[in-house]
Amino acid sequence: MTTPAAGPAMAAVAGALLALAAAAAVLCSPAAGEDAFGSESAAVGRGRRPVVPAMYVFGDSLLDAGNNNLLPPPAPRSVPPNGIDLPRTVSPRIGRCTNAYNLADIIAQQLGFKMSPPPYLSLTPLLNSDLLRGRGGANYASGGSGILDITGNGTIALRKQVQLFAETKATILRAGLVDRASLDDLLARSLFLISTGGNDFDAFDNDVPMSQAPEFIAGMVADYLKYINELYKLGARRLALLDIVPVGCLPSQRAITGNGECDPSGNSISQMFNALLRSEIAKAVVTSMPRLKYSVASLYNTYSDMIANPALAGKNKDFQREDCVR
């Protein structure tokens, strides 16, 4: 039940929704006169100043901007025609699991950046000067990864992505271009974006029976909140989460149903995860992350709306019987 990459139609439809989620987490613009992004890597999108100092991205193929292509086999890689519709100024053109910009790019553009921050693996071992000043950010997402360490083959699990961010913060402090207090202030005003969990449902195609779904999903959410809490302790204060699509409506699942329609049992585990995530993060914010401002954008509803109303995605009435996304 691997989560699909966002195709062009999904990106177009979801863009406004996800931008609103990011904006809700951001809440306010930077102070007048603030240089929100250095000149090296931050050509500003749409002619306006970014509303946050930096954006830090975690998750799976919906957000991966090229990390997997820098990993050794057997990590899945982006190959042509992915990237075919990206502007020629974008280099490298291959790395995203889409034909053009992905959801990380779309949200970054809505915040005033040109695109997603660069993939973390492209910045090591020498980080760029913007990031060493606590600006611009980095993208740690890895296509095919999940919340659980066992998910993905050679990918960067969420636990490791958070560890890489911790290493990034330590590297910034060692560089000495910004002091700890200033860095903490920059991180508190930056956006942390996460989309993960869908690939973990592959377990239901293997050795986890559906009867154990409540316990399995409870474990997923508990681990997810643990990693969010680690980001909070590292300085995250503005968080945008993307929930899980209706996995029973993925082409891979509809192909094995008798009539080609969505699989209700698959959708039920997405609904279970999404509901539990919302309720548990609300509790966690009260008990252990009181200064966290967060928003959860519903990819589930966006995807469902596209299937129910194909015109929203620029599709005809036969959309339900075609591949929904690339």
UniProtKB/TrEMBL annotation:
Cross-referenced InterPro entries: GDSL, GDSL_Est/Lipase, Lipase_GDSL_AS, SGNH_hydro_sf
GO biological process, one term: lipid catabolic process
The keyword S-adenosyl-L-methionine appears for this protein: no
Alphabetically ordered keywords of this record: Hydrolase, Lipid degradation, Lipid metabolism, Signal
Signal peptide (residue range): 1-33
Coiled-coil spans in chain: none
Molecular function terms from GO: hydrolase activity
Similarity remark: Belongs to the 'GDSL' lipolytic enzyme family.
Protein name from the UniProt record: GDSL esterase/lipase
